[in-house]
Amino acid sequence: MEPLFEVVVFLAIATLGAALARKLGLLAPILLVVVGLALSFVPGFPQVRLDPDLVLVGILPPLLYVAALETSVPAFRLNLRPILLLAVGLVIFTAFAVGLVVHLLLPAVPFAVCLALGAVVAPPDAVAATAVARRIGLPRRVVTILEGESLINDATALVLLRVATMATIGTSVGVGDVAWEVLVATGGGIVMGLLGVVVFGFLHKRITDPLLDNAVSLIVPFAVVFAAEEIHASGVVAVVVTGLGIGHKMPLLMSAASRLQIGAFWRLVRFLLEGLVFLLVGLQLREVVQDLDEPLGFLAAITGAVLVTVFLTRFAWLFPATYLARLVPRVRQRDPAPLAKFPVVIGWAGMRGVVTLAAALALPLTLAQDRPYPRQLFIWLAFAVIVATLVGQGATLPAVARRLKLPPDDPVQDALSAAGVQQQASRAARERLDELAESAPTAVVERLRRVSQERTNVAWERLGGTERETPSQAYGRLRQEMIDAEREVFRAARDSGRIPEEVLVRAYRDLDLEESLLRREEES
């Protein structure tokens, strides 16, 4: 019972931390890391040792999957060049830069193991990027690039880590071996991901029960990862490909009830896992520092050198990657050069997270011929990068974004586009209604025509100002009062024994659905 009790305690702390962060106006990931750091030294508090396999196979896949489900495939494809430059090019550049700096400071340690450390600290975290970027309202394209980078860069780093680790334990690694490793990991991951789209798309298409749809959706990321790992392919790539494919086709694969239930389910899973991940990262501090035996001065020097390298390499790569590509006329014409503030904020958003710590814990215990190396120091360096980037950069990212005054997405243009498409959709709906009008009473047909027209009117109302209450807002306010009155009548009837509990549940379900629609229209 003790492990289960600890999990419940951690989830409770994560939930309370997230609630406190919202009340204080802070970012929950930052607060939870700080709480974990403090709790790691509380006497008697459970000491948690993260299992790398648990993180890479048990926690990361569902988080990547839900992030991929919500990622726009057209937007991802449109920004594929900057995403790949960051997710592949920058990861390799950072890994070699960090590896070189560490090797210069520790010349007795082979470059291969220093490169392994570089691969560990190179990729910004998928959870951190998604958790922070969306919450501070960055422009949509910046969020897409950051999310796309974080979806792919783990695969690049883990492949590079695998190759470097092979060299550290004495395995001969040549150009052909590296090429084969990349081909198997990336190509195999893409194949397994596409296979996941076909297999689970087929299942979702034929399942009509929302509960079964939900159960299958929970199985998908784990099944895809296990299948990919079985052939030594990248589970990260496989999960991302499957998530992108299923998410893009979801309107054709699932019923409305299934989509609503799956959306609510994955929001809960992501909320709990994100909170748990950031809390667990902070709780590792006592475990990380207790075996360190390096002199404090040297420890501070090498930690500072790695942190500076990680920070500067991102900017050193971003600006040339952003502006040199525009020297190509075709690229410049299709995608004009952005203002310098955009690469600055993308550079500042390079937070590391739990994947970095899990990869560090997976470093080999010894080198070839059982030669020792400062493994605990490397784990400390990875942990220091996580805390410094997540707490330092993550906490200051909102202020940096405000200081730079990034031009926000134009809400008027969004509303105009939505209204235009809604008008086309309503026209198509009325044309379909006209085809079927003879099969229904005239009063029903007229009522449906009014509903269709009202949906169009609501869309156009959003283009107006917010100084006065629109007709749809007045409708929502009054209908909410009516729903509250209806609920009270049903509750009183249940309490007095005039209706059974089942009748109350059905009535509340219908009223709850209508209220959720009203709230959605208010938020939009």
Automatic annotation (TrEMBL):
GO biological process, one term: regulation of intracellular pH
Residues annotated as transmembrane: 24-42, 54-76, 83-102, 108-134, 155-176, 182-203, 234-252, 264-285, 297-321, 342-365, 377-397
Cell compartments where the protein resides: Cell membrane
NCBIfam families: a_cpa1 (TIGR00831)
GO terms for cellular component: plasma membrane
InterPro entries in alphabetical order: Cation/H_exchanger_CPA1, Cation/H_exchanger_CPA1_bac, Cation/H_exchanger_TM
Role according to the record: Na(+)/H(+) antiporter that extrudes sodium in exchange for external protons.
Keyword Membrane in record: yes
Protein name: Sodium/proton antiporter, CPA1 family
Alphabetical keyword list: Antiport, Cell membrane, Ion transport, Membrane, Sodium, Sodium transport, Transmembrane, Transmembrane helix, Transport
